[in-house]
Amino acid sequence: MKPTSKQLAYLRSLALATGTTFTYPTTSANASVEIRRLKTVGRSSRSDRTREQRAVQHDLAERPDDATAIRANDVIGYGSNCRWSH
Hints:
This protein is 51% helix and 5% strand. It has 86 residues and is mainly α. The protein is flat, with a radius of gyration of 19 Å.
């Protein structure tokens, strides 16, 4: 059985309140497990969450293509032929 919309909404609000992420549940039972887990995590303060959001927004604005940049220590190849580039 798929997770309900109420469970998903509650998971999102708990994740925002705690400043954490969650694994997207595939079943209602998985959603319940994630909800219980997030309830045990301490909540972060509003100022901490705001500060974190602003830092992420600033980094995205300053370096929008940073995630796709090729770095000197990236890997080359696929599967068993994969190796670190130098």
